[in-house]
Design brief:
Number of domains: 2
Number of strands: 0
Radius of gyration: 22 Å
Shape: globular
Largest sheet: none
């Protein structure tokens, strides 16, 4: 019920769509990076406080929480942002969209809890799996609040949810370190509570009334009836396909290091070196969803009016930026990242430069795929995007199984997966142009 209340109170204060300042939009990817940094710092502090076995458990818990929580509920944010922006562009009432989002979020929450409990064999006990399920609930609240904030271009408030989450994570980790807490419960509690507490505080900040004060008014039978008649409803199949691509994308960016670590179990120094480099080079991945959240409202509004040129114009700046940073990024991956891995993570054996370059290239290609798929999602081709990422995940599994140096083939597997995803998104985008071109030209002649 708290997720329902949170999302609806946010809708009271957001108001009409307005142009977001550039600085506010730029703060979104920065806040995402800070969340990633806070998570990495928590793990670094935990490694210096907990026994090695417990540190391995909290690391697995962190990975699973991000994979299940963010992978499942990011789709609710994305689809709510798309449909609500489209409703605003045509002057429709956005409240029924939020009601539909809550119903679908409840369904996905059941799925997330089931996945959390199914991960029990990977965790030391059922109690840790229950903590993972609770973390899925706090992630649900967090993403349900962010959806309407992105749709209405309230990027300062949107960024604040991540900034507060990063602050609570870091402060909790420092407090546990200073107190010498070396048990799993305390460290897991920080990871579980930070997203939900941050979202609730942002809801309070964006509303001049209390969190529960207007719940009865907002959740009325009239609103529920209106939700059934609104043509701008969130389609459950779209949410499912979007969840599939988020979960698959998590696999694309996470499974290569896991596979290499398993293959190099007898050579831990090489495994540690690969993981350190992979963690550094995958840091921009945390920004991808934020960039998409910034782009999607504008692209959806243009798509609602069948403005194909408008959807392309919105994607040009980030694509030009990717092209500009590609060469420096690849050079840094070869010359700087190995030094960073040795300095920050104290590893000795970094992977060879072809593997490092392949990992860096996969990040660039994945970023391009995320930008381009925004247009495909705006035209409601969620199935094509989901299949593209699922295909990439399958290719990663196949290539990483090739005999040879696990570090090189693990990096090539991630690169091959990113290429397959980009090809799938480009094919889906070409279909969007063909289909909507046929519907647009007769309209233009009139």
């Amino acid at each position: 019920m708290s997720a329902v209340t949170s999302l609806r109170v946010v809708s009271v204060r957001l108001g009409r769509v307005s142009d977001a300042p550039l600085r506010a939009a730029a703060g979104v990817p920065v806040s995402q990076v800070l969340v990633a940094v806070a998570g990495y710092l928590l793990l670094a502090l935990a490694a210096r406080t907990m026994p090695a076995a417990d540190f391995a458990v909290i690391s697995a818990f962190y990975l699973l929480l991000n994979t299940i929580g963010r992978g499942v509920f990011a789709s609710v944010e994305l689809e709510t942002s798309r449909v609500l922006a489209a409703a605003d562009a045509t002057g429709r009432n956005g409240r029924p969209v939020l009601a539909t989002a809550m119903r679908h979020a409840a369904v996905l929450l059941v799925v997330a809890i089931a996945l959390s409990l199914a991960a029990t064999p990977l965790l030391p006990g059922f109690d840790v799996a229950v903590a993972l399920a609770v973390g899925s609930c706090t992630m649900a609240v967090s993403y349900c609040v962010r959806g309407p904030l992105a749709a209405r271009r309230r990027f300062r408030a949107y960024s604040l949810t991540f900034l507060l989450e990063a602050a609570f994570t870091l402060l909790g980790a420092v407090a546990l370190t200073l107190a010498g807490v070396n048990t799993m419960v305390g460290w897991a509690a920080v990871l579980v509570l930070s997203p939900g507490v941050a979202a609730v505080l942002v809801v309070f900040r964006t509303s001049r009334v209390g969190l529960f004060a207007r719940m009865r008014t907002l959740w009325s039978s009239r609103d529920r009836d209106a939700a059934h008649g609104n043509e701008h409803q969130i389609v459950m199949t779209a949410v499912i396909w979007t969840s599939l691509f988020y979960l698959s994308s998590q696999g694309v960016w996470n499974l290569a290091p896991v596979s290499v670590t398993s293959a190099l179990a007898m050579v831990p120094s090489e495994a540690a070196g690969f993981v350190a480099v992979a963690v550094i080079l995958r840091a921009p991945v945390f920004v991808f969803p934020a960039i998409q959240a910034v782009l999607l409202p504008s692209v959806s509004a243009a798509a609602q009016h069948n403005d194909r040129d408008g959807t392309r114009r919105a994607l040009r700046p980030p694509l030009f930026l990717l092209g500009a940073v590609s060469i420096p990024w690849l050079l840094a991956a070869t010359l700087v990242v190995p030094w960073m891995a040795r300095t920050v993570f104290a590893v000795r054996d970094v992977p060879p430069w072809p593997a490092t370059t392949a990992l860096a290239a996969s990040t660039l290609i994945g970023a391009a795929a995320f930008v381009l798929q925004t247009r495909v999602l705006a035209f409601r081709r969620h199935r094509d995007v989901g299949l593209a990422w699922l295909s990439g995940l399958c290719v990663l599994g196949l290539v990483s199984a090739v005999p040879g140096d696990p570090r090189l083939w693990g990096a090539l597997a991630q690169l091959a997966a990113a290429v397959v995803v980009l090809m799938g998104v480009l094919i889906a985008d070409s279909r969007v142009g063909q289909e909507h071109g046929r519907t647009w030209r007769p309209h233009a002649r009139r």
